[in-house]
Specification:
The complex is a heterodimer of chains A (about 425) and B (about 220).
Chain A (H helix, E strand, L loop, with lengths): L4 H15 L1 H39 L3 E4 L9 H5 L22 H10 L3 E16 L2 E10 L1 H8 L5 E3 L3 H5 L3 E5 H7 L6 E5 L5 E10 L4 H4 L2 E5 H7 L9 E6 L5 H12 L2 E4 H4 L1 H39 L1 H9 L4 H36 L19 H27 L3 H5 L3
Parallel strand pairs in A: 3-8, 5-7
Antiparallel strand pairs in A: 1-9, 1-10, 2-3, 2-6, 2-9, 4-7, 5-8, 6-7
Helix pairs in contact in A: 1-14, 2-12, 2-14, 2-15, 12-15, 14-15
Chain B lengths: L1 E12 L5 E12 L3 E6 L5 H8 L7 E6 L2 E2 L5 H11 E4 L11 H12 L4 H14 L15 H13 L5 E5 L7 H18 L2 E5 L3 H5 L3 E6 L2 E2 L2
Parallel strand pairs in B: 3-8, 3-9, 6-7, 7-8
Antiparallel strand pairs in B: 1-2, 1-4, 4-5, 9-10
Helix pairs in contact in B: 3-4, 3-5, 4-5
The chains are: A alpha+beta (about 425), B alpha/beta (about 220).
Chain lengths: ~425, ~220
Amino acid sequence: MFGSRFKLTLEIAKVHLLSKPKQTVIAMLGVTFGIAMFIALVGLMTGLNDFTEEITMTSSPDIHIYKDVTSPRPTILQQTSPGSLTWVHHQKPKNELTKVRNAYRIMELIRKNEMVRGVAPALSSQVFYNYGPAQLNGSILGVDILEEDKLFGLKSKMKEGRIEELLATREGIIMGQGLAKKLDVKKGNRIVITTPEGHTMTLKIVGIFQMGIGVVDNVRCYANIGTVQTILQQDPSYVTDINIKLNDRHLAKKYAAELEAKYNTKAEDWETANATFLTGVIIRNIITYAVSVTLLIVAGFGIYNILNMTIYNKMKDIAILKAMGFAGGDVRSIFMIQSLIIGLIGAMAGLVIGYILSVLISKAPFNGGDIISLDHFPVNFDPKFYIIGVVFGVITTAVAGYMPSRKASRIDPIEILRGQ
Amino acid sequence: MEVLATRNISKYFYEPEKFQVLKDITLTINRGEFLSLVGKSGCGKSTLMYVLSTMDTDYEGELEIAGQKLTGKNQDTLSAFRNEHIGFVFQFHYLLPEFTVLQNVMIPALKRNKFSPEEIEHKAMERLKTLGVEQHAHKPSNKLSGGQQQRVAIARALINDPDIIMCDEPTGNLDSYNTHLVFDIFKQLTHEYKQTIIAVTHDDEFASKTDRIVQMSDGHIVL
């Protein structure tokens, strides 16, 4: 039957739980529901976060170096005598090239830094795409396609054609899927592009890519950097952007500031570029935890109530146990064990149900529309959240069980045992 | 040989107003004595018994059981002391309803944790035999009659071979047949096994047949 002293308290706790199975199950269900919702919610929320982060991060550089035309332009007077009062009305931006000076030299220096995983030049320009009578505006990105692939994994994004085909044809272009759909073009078709300056060129579509984000897929084309330089009628050193990927993207902010100071140009890190997106992540996390904690607190109240009721019903038992030599601590253990058993089993069941819910959600069809290419919900099955769930559940039940258990340990047996 | 001694025990109630319920009680009880504590309702006999039982620690004076001074000891020490040295029988049986008769008898011994569960079970069966309820050992405790339940409660009080059994109206809830039965058991325990028993009772017939009667009135021992 029962052996040591702990086994005795455990046995009594077990008998109490089993003698009121309905009550016990209801208390457990409270915890189960709370944990299951936590697992399902956190899985969906972080799954969405990770998914959007993944596609934004793979399609955007950790650090983006470019020439910022809106940077303030001090007058000569301001430069010679700083502190003096000068005022220039209606200052217009200077007509200067958006070229990054000494781009290839800068890239060479950056590449030497061991934090850097890859550097790629880009030349971007607004263009019109003409195919038959259709005219759409978008952007063309002149790149070194192999470098670009190293940074953004272009190969895996190709829907039709291969990136190497761009190297083989000087007048080739790789088009975003959304754009291709709008223009109703296929691989092998030729289209005419027009730059803002009025230059035109006919290019052949050698491939179609899909990044998964509407803002890229609906407007962008890749071409060789030399091709774009030719369209814009610029020299071969003309580069507007330098994209950098780091080994650890969390160092981007610091390194960007360093680059900005060193090369006197604009260097934007991914955190700044994606500030709105990151705020969204934080808010989603807050909502997830707030809802889960609320559910668990409600479950905690349930346990508190049920234990209080059990203790009220077991006053006589508690009194006789104390008379027979059970110390206050022993009585407290009896009821703490009950609440912890409820918590542990409830939490475990919650994990199982939460997992099932997560699997169901991950199978549910979901149309991301043009914005994101998604056909079902992304769900995160990270075991970390399952551990957090159990810890949460057990802590809640321990806190909820502590007060009634302490009350039980303080019951004065004389008041109950005195026969009258 | 004395098993319990008190010196000048006084106790006050503070609700609804200050009232001295025990006044300078000095009492010595010898091993093997069957003692009844009698007196009118409100004379303080139950209160005295709960002081003697170590459950009530709010008193002045000194209490000594089995050679150990218990006044001023903390609650956990007193719990352990009760477990080893004192058995209880109340007006109601207070058996734990979810456990079998045998388990109920075993619990204080399991709590003491001095013997193996097998030894304890063997001993519990012997106690149940002594009290003539061994055939009910494996029934749930709430399936027995009132008299049988009270006998199981006595078996439970005996399981740790206590120095004293303290009873608060042990026959208060029993019919005359069972009252006699319980009395005879007590008599047998004191005479054959030298068991000390203190019983608070207002049953004069029960008291008159005990070895020693302590009569209380207004917080004093008068006889």
